[in-house]
Amino acid sequence: MVKIRRSISLGFMLLMSLLLAGQIVYSAQSPDLKPEKNPLEVAIAATGPLYLPVLLANEAGYFSKRGLTVNISTLSATASAQALLSGQVDIYQGGTATIHANVGGADLIYIAASVDRSTLMLFGQKGLTSFENLRGKSVATTSVGAFGEIAMRKTAKEHGMEIGKDIKLLYHKGPPDALSTFLVGNADGVIITPPQTEMARSKGFPVIIDFYEKGLKIIGPGTGVARAFVKKHPNTLKIFLMGYLDGLKRSLDDPAYAHKILSQTSKITDPKLLEDSYKEGVKVWNKDMTVDPHAIKLVLEQSTLPKVAELDPNRFLDNSLIREVNRDYAAKLFPGEVK
Fold first, then answer.
1. How far apart are CA 290 and CA 129, in angstroms?
2. Residues 92 and 137 in one domain
3. Which domain holds residue 306?
4. Domain termination site, one of 194, 214, 234
């Protein structure tokens, strides 16, 4: 009986140690920061695997455990810059809108890059299997100036073609709308991100270009804010970034919970589609969210505005906060992977 009780006691202590360790991973080991602003209004460009860590972090309470209430809404790229400037939104987790607004004179910048590898895929209607096949045809994409257009302009130049002259782009509010246009046959091609890529693939449409395999480096989604907000609310932003990293780690360590949140937010119920979409996110989520100026330069180079390609990419970013967060927190969450 003594041996049995001792075994149970040791087992209980081991279990409590593991549970405590898990709690530490997701909540402790961080500086004792107090947010200057609460609540925090965060807009995302879409739902899907690219946005899963922030959605999971909010659902799991990783922001609230740090004393920060985060309200998340979905906002189109075209409306995001104005929302940031007016103060309706504090953070925009999205793509190129931050860059375009900065070019236009708004002092908006990236402070982190949760993704900087492209998950875009270009599909053709059945029988259209090469980029050359799209000459004289139309391709459905998302909003003007978004990554779909940037990738298409870059690829068209590489093939001696020109967007607007050799290929017509059909613009949409987001990937679901672009895919719908393609599926009913009103576009010859479509350039989209997960989970719509997995939907198109499951229906047998040929992949013309997988931009992840091609190595296209972009910031999307990145954490876009007004520079004045960074100066006024540095602790709030650090807390947000740490909570996001907690969500990222949980997304990686607990696939079952990640699948649950992805299904809830993206309305995906098919198990295979859900798993494939999750894997697309795992491929590109950044543990070190330092903003790479080369990813911004790629966007500037595809601009149709004069002299934009000559702008210094560093004017569009401030890595000071994420460097501190990486040093003080991410390095503990992901030892050996983040410094």
1. 36
2. no
3. 24-117+218-333
4. 214
* Domain end position, chosen among 167, 194, 214: 214
In a domain, 270, yes or no: yes
31 upstream amide cis, omega within 30 of 0? no
pTM flag (> 0.90): no
Q: Is 302 helix (H, G, I), strand (E, B) or coil?
A: coil
Number of domains in the chain: 2
**Residue 178, CA atoms < 13 Å, CB-side half-sphere:** 33
Q: Please report whether residue 125 resides in a domain.
A: yes
Helix (H, G, I), strand (E, B) or coil at 151: helix
Same domain, 132 and 113: no
The pLDDT profile of the chain, 339 residues, written as one tens digit per residue, is: 434 344 444 444 444 444 444 443 444 445 589 999 999 999 998 888 999 999 999 999 999 999 999 999 998 877 888 899 899 999 999 988 899 999 999 999 999 999 989 999 999 999 999 999 999 999 999 988 888 999 999 999 999 999 999 999 999 988 999 999 999 999 999 999 988 999 999 999 999 999 999 999 888 899 999 999 999 999 999 999 999 999 999 999 999 999 999 999 999 999 999 999 999 999 999 999 999 999 999 999 988 889 999 999 999 999 999 999 999 999 999 999 998
* Distance, CA of 169 to CA of 165 (rounded, Å): 10
What gap in Å lies between CA 178 and CA 196, rounded to an integer?
9
Assess contact for 143 and 172: CB atoms under 8 A: yes
Sequence-distant (6+) residues with CB within 8 A of 166 are: 135, 136, 156
**Does 65 share its domain with 141?**
no
**Which run of H or of E encompasses 182?**
helix 175-183
CB 146 within 8 A of CB 77: yes
CATH of the domain at 319: 3.40.190.10
